[in-house]
Design goal:
Elements: H1 11-18, E1 24-27, E2 30-33, H2 38-58, E3 62-63, E4 69-70, E5 84-88, E6 103-104, E7 110-116, H3 121-135, E8 139-144, H4 151-154, E9 161-168, E10 171-177
Parallel strand pairs: 4-6, 7-8
Antiparallel strand pairs: 1-2, 3-5, 5-7, 8-9, 9-10
Length: 201
């Protein structure tokens, strides 16, 4: 495992050193260990499957890349690696980095980002939600399958929570779903999904 550097990294440094190490993200030049676990990866994979089916049924020219980096802002050393990202194939000609590496910098290329909440839940509910909204991504899901988020975010008592965030202006409007609820996505109205469907057994 690479050692975490003590000096700040540029975006270019991060891509050169950690592009293929899916464990790490970059936030303001700081290397972040996302600590993915087996259950986390299982939930991510299940979600990608349900989203992929909904995309195919809607006959959209959208796809889910196997791996992709998202650079939210020019001039800021930040690189995100959403657990699931849906890209619009028709917009990729406008992505200046795409032909050389799987890096997205324009919001118009992105239809949806999904973060499966883990130990670093604060970032998923605050920092990433703010970045994705300011970037203009139309829909963001945070899937807190263990109910780890703070009570300000998922209520009391804490419980597994699926939050669909829909962009309104430069902020997200949120709708939360609990176990047993059918998730509604404005982006994918034909989605057939409950939080229960993606929980690890």
């Amino acid at each position: 495992m690479p050692s975490i550097p003590t000096k700040a990294l540029t975006f270019e440094d991060f891509v050169a050193q950690y592009r293929n190490d899916f464990r790490y993200e970059l936030a303001d030049g700081e290397l972040i260990d996302t600590e993915p676990t087996g259950p986390h990866e299982m939930v991510s994979g299940q979600l990608a499957g349900y989203v992929g089916i909904a995309i195919n049924n809607a006959q959209r020219r959208w796809f889910i890349p196997r791996s992709c980096l998202l650079k939210p802002f020019a001039g800021i050393a930040t690189a995100r690696r959403p657990d699931v990202i849906v890209l619009d194939e028709t917009m990729l000609a406008n992505e200046p980095l795409w032909d050389q590496e799987a890096v997205i910098i324009r919001a118009k290329s992105i239809k949806l980002v999904v973060e499966v909440v883990g130990n670093g839940w604060e970032n998923d509910y605050t920092r990433k939600a703010e970045e994705y909204a300011l970037l203009g991504i139309p829909e963001y899901w945070s899937v807190d399958f263990r109910g780890r988020g703070g009570m300000d975010f998922i209520g009391k008592p804490k419980q597994p929570t699926f939050t669909v965030c829909q962009l309104s202006g430069d902020e997200y409007r949120q709708q939360q779903y609990r176990l047993g609820d059918v998730v509604s996505s404005p982006l994918l109205p034909n989605l057939q999904l409950r939080l229960d469907d993606v929980l690890p057994q």
